[in-house]
């Protein structure tokens, strides 16, 4: 809907033909964004060859589906079209960032990352939102941020692609921890401590992987961490909250896409490979893999040796 502002036609591809038909019929995503109709210019389809029309493709699938989607788009994408990754996560099987996945699958495209604090429903309602648009090429970042910004959806440009994607991936894992603390009734002080120590983990990992500090402290890092760790509107926070209340991992992860559940393990593996300690992310991974209970994780975090605040 944002892209439809000022454009006559915005094709919207869905991989599931029934979903595309339902969107075309109802002009609304009745399950995920009820009460928020599609703009008139949005044209749902399940034919991925529509990317042929596009100079800008917004890739908004689950993170683990970015590779197959990019691969399917490859024969149809124009030379130098922009492939803007809006998913937040890291490829689990090959331990790759999504910009790396896109570059491998779409050599003809210019890859960018759009990430930051923005619940889809807020954006669709026209509530004020500000996010990061990162591309290695400054001129591309500038062009995309100008073309995709509206009065209420403001894109700040960056050339730190890695920083933008680390923030978006890591905050989901940390939001699960924040949700657990809330669901377990640990109180507002614990919540604030978790966000601050979670941010320390995000910074440590980001620095080890070459991200810039200002990106990690910006919209796509700290900004999105604060949003996601502080709102039950977040699916990651809601997943953690359910676990904190005692719901089983199987029941809690069912139904809605919570990217942190897919990112936790690969984030911990990447950190270990770079000798970076991430106790909160490790606890989330251990709980999701049923190696640790929520109470066991709280106990383990409280028992950690006292150390300097870094
Ligand atoms: N919903 C939100 O507020 C925000 C979501 N994101 C990110 O956007 C990405 C997508 O999230 P949502 O749209 O919210 O999730 P969603 O669950 O609402 O929609 C995901 C869509 O992907 C489709 N899909 C599932 N498997 C697929 C596959 N193998 N190939 C292609 N498409 C497939 C589903 O049919 C569905 O239409 C996630 O990485 C999420 O972190 C980022 C910012 C905000
Ligand atoms: O990324 C988001 C907000 O910036 C959406 O958060 P959830 O995926 O946790 O709902």
Automatic annotation (TrEMBL):
Compartments (UniProt record): Cytoplasm
Recorded catalytic reaction(s): these are: sn-glycerol 3-phosphate + NAD(+) = dihydroxyacetone phosphate + NADH + H(+); sn-glycerol 3-phosphate + NADP(+) = dihydroxyacetone phosphate + NADPH + H(+)
Q: Which InterPro entries match?
A: 6-PGluconate_DH-like_C_sf (IPR008927), 6PGD_dom2 (IPR013328), G3P_DH_NAD-dep (IPR006168), G3P_DH_NAD-dep_C (IPR006109), G3P_DH_NAD-dep_N (IPR011128), NAD(P)-bd_dom_sf (IPR036291)
Could you confirm whether the keyword Glycoprotein appears in this record?
Answer: no
Where does this protein hold NADPH? Answer: 15, 88, 120, 235, 257, 259
> Boundaries of each Glycerol-3-phosphate dehydrogenase NAD-dependent C-terminal domain copy?
160-298
- What EC numbers are recorded for this enzyme? 1.1.1.94
Pfam assignment, any one: NAD_Gly3P_dh_C
Which GO terms of the molecular function aspect are on file? glycerol-3-phosphate dehydrogenase (NAD+) activity; glycerol-3-phosphate dehydrogenase (NADP+) activity; NAD binding
**Glycerol-3-phosphate dehydrogenase NAD-dependent N-terminal domain: from which residue to which, for each copy?**
1-140
Residues that bind sn-glycerol 3-phosphate, according to the entry?
88, 116, 118, 171, 224, 234-236
Organism domain of life: Bacteria
Give the binding site residues for NAD(+).
Answer: 120, 235, 256
Which residue positions are annotated as catalytic? 171 (proton acceptor)
Protein's pathway:
Membrane lipid metabolism; glycerophospholipid metabolism
Spell out the Gene3D superfamilies in the cross-references.
N-(1-d-carboxylethyl)-l-norvaline Dehydrogenase, domain 2 (1.10.1040.10), NAD(P)-binding Rossmann-like Domain (3.40.50.720)
Q: Which residues bind substrate?
A: 88, 235-236
User: Per its UniProt record, what NCBIfam families does this chain match?
Assistant: PRK00094.1-2, PRK00094.1-4
Q: What role does it play?
A: Catalyzes the reduction of the glycolytic intermediate dihydroxyacetone phosphate (DHAP) to sn-glycerol 3-phosphate (G3P), the key precursor for phospholipid synthesis.
Query: What protein does this entry describe?
Result: Glycerol-3-phosphate dehydrogenase [NAD(P)+]
């Amino acid at each position: 809907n944002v892209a439809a502002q000022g454009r006559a036609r915005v094709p919207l591809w869905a991989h599931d033909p029934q979903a595309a038909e339902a969107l075309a019929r109802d002009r609304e995503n009745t399950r995920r964004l009820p009460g928020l109709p599609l703009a008139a210019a949005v044209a749902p389809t399940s034919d991925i060859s529509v990317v042929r029309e596009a100079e800008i493709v917004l890739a908004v699938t689950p993170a683990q589906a970015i590779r197959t989607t990019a691969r399917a788009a490859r024969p149809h994408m124009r030379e130098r079209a922009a492939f803007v990754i809006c998913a937040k996560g890291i490829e689990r099987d090959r331990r790759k960032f999504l910009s790396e996945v896109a570059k491998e699958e779409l050599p003809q495209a210019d890859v960018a990352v759009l990430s930051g604090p923005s619940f889809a429903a807020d954006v669709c309602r026209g509530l004020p939102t500000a996010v990061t648009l990162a591309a290695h090429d400054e001129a591309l970042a500038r062009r995309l941020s100008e073309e995709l910004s509206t009065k209420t959806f403001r894109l700040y440009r960056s050339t730190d692609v890695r920083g933008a994607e680390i923030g978006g991936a890591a905050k989901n894992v940390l939001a699960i921890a924040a949700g657990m603390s809330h669901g377990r009734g640990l109180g507002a002080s614990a919540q604030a401590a978790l966000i601050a120590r979670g941010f320390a983990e995000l910074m440590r990992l980001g620095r080890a992987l070459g991200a810039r500090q200002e990106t990690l402290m910006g919209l796509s890092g700290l900004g999105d961490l604060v949003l996601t760790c502080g709102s039950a509107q977040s699916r990651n926070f809601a997943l953690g909250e359910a676990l904190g209340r005692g719901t089983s991992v199987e029941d809690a992860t069912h139904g809605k896409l919570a990217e942190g559940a897919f990112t936790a393990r690969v984030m911990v593996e990447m950190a270990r490979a770079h000798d970076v300690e991430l106790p909160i992310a490790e606890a989330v991974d251990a709980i999701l893999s049923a190696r640790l209970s929520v109470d066991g994780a709280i106990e383990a975090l409280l028992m950690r040796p006292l150390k300097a605040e870094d």
